[in-house]
User: Which sequence fits this backbone?
């Protein structure tokens, strides 16, 4: 039985499939395609994490974020800098603040 996936997977997945005695069809994505595929995969993994939080799913999200940083040619140190800036300017999530509403007075 053939199952369609049409999504980006980790590099060794085709080899793992072949080693299991099955066959698969895949292609190597170009730069413009890979960005969209990685973003879609991130949303997929976030939805899975929402349903079943686990360290394994979170590790996949970290791996995807690393791939997105590389794909968009972002600078990891600059992202770390921005994280520090956001922490200083807006705080963290450690105090568990849940904003309910804002009244602009009008």
Assistant:
């Amino acid at each position: 039985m053939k199952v369609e996936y049409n999504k980006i997977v980790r590099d060794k997945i085709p080899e793992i499939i072949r080693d299991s005695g099955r066959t698969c069809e895949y292609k190597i994505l170009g730069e413009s395609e890979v960005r969209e595929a990685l973003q879609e995969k991130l949303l997929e993994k976030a939805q899975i994490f929402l349903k079943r939080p686990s360290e394994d799913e979170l590790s996949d999200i970290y791996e995807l974020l690393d791939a997105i940083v590389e794909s968009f040619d972002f600078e990891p140190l600059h992202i770390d800098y921005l994280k520090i800036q956001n922490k200083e300017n807006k705080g963290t999530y450690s105090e568990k603040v849940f904003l309910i509403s804002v009244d602009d007075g009008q």
In short: The CA atoms of residues 14 and 24 lie 7 Å apart. The chain has a mean pLDDT of 96.
